[in-house]
Amino acid sequence: MAIFLILAPYGAFTFLMLVTSATTSVFAASAICLATVAIDVARGRSVKILAAGSAIVFAAIGLYLALIDPAFGTLGVKLSVDIGIFVISLGSLLMRRPFTLQYAVETVPAETAAMPGFLTANYIITGAWTAAALLMAAANVALLYFPGLPLWSSLAVAFAARNSAIYFTKWYPEYRQVKYGTAARALPHTR
User: Fold this and answer.
1) Residues 73-95 as b or e (16 or more Cβ within 10 Å = b)
2) What is the tens place of the pLDDT at every residue in 13-41?
């Protein structure tokens, strides 16, 4: 359930980009991000860097489209979203608060969260998500500079990068448990 709430705004954005305008897509994604923030607050959980940051990114792109350049283009919007997610993810690492840590701390016992390897695992997993966002942005840049590339190539890279990050998020805590004897549930389950 946690992974669904985390990825819901991005899935909705991707789907809506196929059936409606970019402006509608980013504002809807921003609203979904705000809904996930509201759900966390209602459940007594912390406001997540990723959800709040994504709400801002989507809303800023929507305002740009609505007020400044409505003809910005689908590819430009997708690239802007990917860059925004990359900045949020990398920024969380540079601030020494990997965004995955907020989700992980809320799903494991306090003694697991206090283990020295727990923070390291979250840095590594956030690094995987940062790399995935960078790959998605690079695929969109490639389409900008090589317009002859098929659109599906960018979609394939995005699908592979996102799914690899999801798989890694599930696999890495289990790997650490086997290798180092740390708790398996270092992050929310993706099932």
Assistant:
1) eebbbbbbbbbbbbbbbbebbee
2) 999 998 999 999 999 999 999 999 999 99
pLDDT, tens digit, for every residue of 123-176? 999 999 999 999 999 999 999 889 899 988 988 999 999 999 999 999 998 888
Q: Report yes or no: 52 and 37 within 8 Å, Cβ to Cβ.
A: yes
DSSP-derived letter for residue 148 is T
- Structure confidence at residue 191 (pLDDT): 43
Nearest Cα residue to 29 out of 42, 41, 14: 14
The 10 Å CB-count burial string (b at 16+, else e) for 130-165 is: bbbbbbbbbbbeebeeeeeeeeeebeebbeebbeeb
Cβ–Cβ under 8 Å, residues 12 and 23: no
Between CA 176 and CA 154, with CA 103 as vertex, the angle to 5 degrees is 85
Helix-helix angle 49-67:2-19, to 10 degrees: 10
Query: Taking the CB of residue 111, how many other CB atoms lie within 10 A of it?
Result: 9
Which SS3 state, helix, strand or coil, does residue 188 take? Answer: coil
Contact between residue 28 and residue 55 where contact means Cβ atoms under 8 Å apart: no
